[in-house]
Amino acid sequence: MNVLADQVFLLARRSVVRTIRQPANVVAPLVFPMMLLAVNSGGLKAETHLPGFPTSSFFAFALAVPFIQGALFATMNAGTDLARDIQTGFLSRLSLTPMRGIALLGGQLGGVLTLGVVQAVVYLTVGLIVGVRLATGPLGVVVLFLFAMLVTLGFGALGAFAALRTGSGEAVQSLFPAFFVFLFLSSMNIPRNLISTTWFRDVATLNPVSYLIECVRSLIIVGWDTEALVLGFGVATVIAVVALALANWALRVRMART
Amino acid sequence: MSDYAIEATELVREFKNGPRAVDSIDLGVAPGEIYGFLGPNGAGKSTTVHMLTTLLPPTSGSARVAGYDVVSEGSHVRAAIGAALQEAALDPLLTGREHLRLQASLQALPRSERKQRADELLTRVGLTHAADRKVRGYSGGMKRRLDLAMALVHNPTVLFLDEPTTGLDIQSRSALWEEVARLAREDKVTVFLTTQYLEEADVLADRVGIIDHGHIVAEGTPAELKAQVGRPTVEAIPADPEDADRVAEILARFGDPCGSTKGVAVRLRAGEADLVDVVRALDSAAIKVENLQLHQPSLDDVFLAKTGRSLEGSDDDGDDDQGAPARGELAAEPA
Amino acid sequence: MRTLAVARGVAWRTLHNVFTNPSLFVPSIVFPLFFFVAFAGGLSHVQDVPGFNYSQGYTAFQFVFVLLQSAAFGGVFTGFGIARDFESGFARRLLLAAPSRTGILLGYSVAALLRWLVTATVLTTVALAAGMNVGGSGVDLFGLYALALIVNAAALLWAAGVAMRLRTMQAGPIMQFPVFLVLFFAPVYVPLALLSGWIHAIATVNPLTRVLEAGRGFLAGSPTEVAAAFGAALALAAAFSFWALRGLRKAEVAG
Question: What's the number of domains chain A is made of?
Fold first, then answer.
């Protein structure tokens, strides 16, 4: 167990170092969601005047989105790094060591989670500076971080699966538009009950990303909403479990050693 | 227990819907030997290396490396071998030193030894000055040297080198040859070296196996192989072109005529030993010779004799190993 | 004549590349459609915000933004192609072979324009099929699409200037990011009057706001701020023409 933990730590450290050495991979997940948050909260502020809108601060309403968007970037980072390892042959090199395959996955995801923590801290700090106060208090912050990490883990594993299955960075990058679609066809910008276009509301209701956003949102603006928490954690757990299983399977096929 | 460091018996690898990339090869490499595995692109060299290094399971047959079976004792094999495969498998974002420390850590070297081992290897391959530079700034030769150093981190007894000097300049190539020769000579490391360069096999290898279309078509020391196919030729270019006929008449006493674009050439009946007599005969006839050369048969001549094709310029496919998965693709299921 | 011949050649080649390559062609059609669906469909309730008084409804309101967005990003995508040409060395071949180098720039502009016209046609068709209300006359609609064309040209010239200076695909984010900022610091979701705070301040001085409001006016059949809109768009196009031509000179000098 110690050996495995050691290996995971080494590879997680490598993952973090590599990300830090690609500034775009650090800056983009921090800047882009914040920018979109600024634009949307400025542009859609008027939405708070709609009857039934859950808060008077659109910024507080929209603050949930970066936590999920950040996970999207985690997908890209985990995936493109792994794909590069496959394309350069570095994975073959690692295969020739006593390294266990699960350590590679664990290390890659460990690195992504580490950066996910940094992202979450930044998002929350910006929110606090702007004046947002979590309705669930300090305990809510802890739950928020745990949830954000669970979502990052699931999305990171999806990126890793895509990389291991295809061995191609381009294929991983092509997931970005798909995730983007899931993000926009959700309750990202308006509560689901206030979506007046029926088909859009139906799509948002079926879209698992809606529940992820609503879970974070409930911690920020609503308080302890059991339904939102159960649904959010439930969806995030299912995504994580399925994605990890797929990634593990793809890894065993890719690292077919005797 | 076998005396061989590397042994393969009727080793086969088939890919789904593809030809047999390796078709029942037998080979044995003695401990401390440098074995050159020579063949054109697509011959099956890399597939063989992948099987011997446990990265690809054989379809049938067996192989043992460092005394362990490659299929049932894969982890033991991996602990005993080092490998520098076809491309220098490096992370462009890490430094040379970081690579070696990571490798040392993954090979479970004691923490106290990792730094020292990394420094030692960096010195050995001449990369101390670039140790803290990211690999993406390295030249091709530097990458290859780092690749080799990484393969040596855990002091393997068997080293696999898959076309280690492809794309390198002459100086880098010579430096790598020197290090490989030293490893075998001083550290008694067994080296299995695949190459498509005749000169590399000729200079480095104690024994050479020539592979074509998945079969070993010839095996032996370079000298033995060359001796199998022919005798040396001598070529004389007279200073005065009018003496060509006289030169031809004299040389005909020593062997059978063969083609020459510039002068007169014969294949010596008695081999190199006749060269002195040739010189004496030309001198006795007072024929001035502008150039006199002795040509030994090359490994290309060996390949030509065994396969009917020349090894140089022989290129079956773009990729090494017919049907073998390209880098980044999943390995196909074995047939 | 030489300029036109070069422009024709460059435009043909660029368009051929795009239309025979689904990975280049499809996103430029799909993304605007997606944004249209997401904004018009998802945010339609915004028209119930007190003070929202756009007569043609939220679908038409968003259509204008998405049309202009597609025009702007259509120009940027063609700029990606220019960067790719420089990176692959093809642009150097063009610079050597073409008797008129201004024709090269003109050719890329024409290609961007024609490429965008396809997108605009698909987008308009889908919007009409979705029941978008059109209050404007033929002249008004001509004004709307003319504005969009100028935005397309301005964006292409901006991106071309960047591409010719940096001559690498890694210039992509530099081309895209400012365009994204200009687009989204405008009244995207609600009219300018319903914005407040810092975003209202930025949107007020953003030249695209004039273009957007005028475009919405054209679609509603009540043109507004037309001179300011065309002035702003043409000024941007002129400024970026200069930027692109200087970039072309720099590329020539770099070899």
Answer: 1
